[in-house]
Amino acid sequence: MKKRIAFIAAALLALTGCASDQVDNSSVTSDAQISAGNSAEPAEGISPENSSQAIAEQYETEIAWEIQDTPEEARREPPLLQVMYSGDGLATCAAMTLGTYSWDTGNEVICADSIGPVACAAEGHISAVVDLDTAAENEPKINLYGGAEITGASLYPLDNSEAVKLEVTQDAVILFPENVTEGVVSVYTKFPEGEAEYYFMVKRTLTDPANPPQLRVFTGDIGFIMTKGAYDWTYTEGDETVTTATDIDAPWDLYEGGHIKPDLSVTPGEKLAIMLTEGGEISSAVFWSASDSSQPLIYSGRDITMPQDHLSGVCCITVKMPAGVCDYLFSVNIGESSSSPAYDPEEAK
């Protein structure tokens, strides 16, 4: 059995070539090592301020490999696998980072050891990052092929605390507990030729217990973050219970001022789905076509139905949740045939 050490970046795997049998470890350098004269020591852990975003900004790895693109060499390591997710109107497939594996080429068994999921993240070798707050239902999902099957998945917190076992569905969807904020996911995969471990990172950008959650409205399978309006919210801060109430401009005033996104193009009578949190329910839905003209919308479960008329205006959806009540707003053009574009979620806050 032949053993080698490999740090395999997702950006490289997308080339669909294969590394040579020997790896030149001197070619793997991070920006931190370059600035310090290659004297930086591998990180044993990541401090709380080194969030996934900070890691991506501080470590931008440059890896030089000798690529041999031959049919025989193409079977010397596991194939590229991707994690699929969507957010803010865009569907995305990101290449996961290949970690430890054992691979039977037919002539020999090749084993490769990674430095571990958290250390891999600290060294900048993981480029696939899924925002759990903007991922749609039944996401993230692993793209499986070549006889592959997932045998398990674990979440490794960035502070090097104990790993958490994650549930995986038969459709290769990975499920995350609500209290997960960020970390590295290790996906254990079995192929006919052997076993391999793949890494991707997760984070949350929108969850804040002191504020109502960001919710999305769906047109088909595409979800768009709605603008938060007035709310009455209760949360715990240490041993203290705090209640926050806001009073902002009326929906039509916000609409005329250009403060409401997304701007959706829908058909008359179209049903739109609203993403609801656990325990959340729609308590009111109103469509405003002018400052003094409004009409209630039909809603059932998590669906709302658009008016039958050709109108432009703003929808105000009131959602009741365990921690309080919040209005969510989005503008619509009813009867338009053009598609709705994606937008920057930061602008929707």
Cα separation of the termini: 55 Å
Major beta sheet summary: 9 strands, mixed
Low-pLDDT segments, ≥5 res: 1-72, 338-349
Strand content: 35-45%
Per the principal axes of the C-alpha atoms, what is the gross shape? elongated
Helical proportion, percent range: under 10%
How many H/I helices?
5
Overall pLDDT metric = 77
What structural class should be given to the helix and strand makeup? mainly beta
The total number of structural domains is 2
Quick rundown:
With 349 residues, this protein is mostly beta strands. The chain is built from five helices and 26 strands.
Written overview of the protein:
This protein has 2 domains: about 1-205, no CATH class; about 215-349, Sandwich (Immunoglobulin-like). Helix content is about 10%, strand content about 40%. It is built from 5 helices and 26 strands. The chain has helices spanning about 10-15, 30-35, 50-60, 115-120, 250-255, and strands at about 1-5, 30, 60-65, 80-85, 90-95, 95-105, 110-115, 130, 140-145, 150-155, 165-170, 175, 185-190, 195-205, 215-220, 220-225, 225-235, 240-245, 265, 270-275, 280-290, 295, 300, 305, 310-320, 325-335. The N and C termini lie far apart (about 55 Å). The model is unreliable at about 1-70 and about 340-349 (pLDDT under 50).
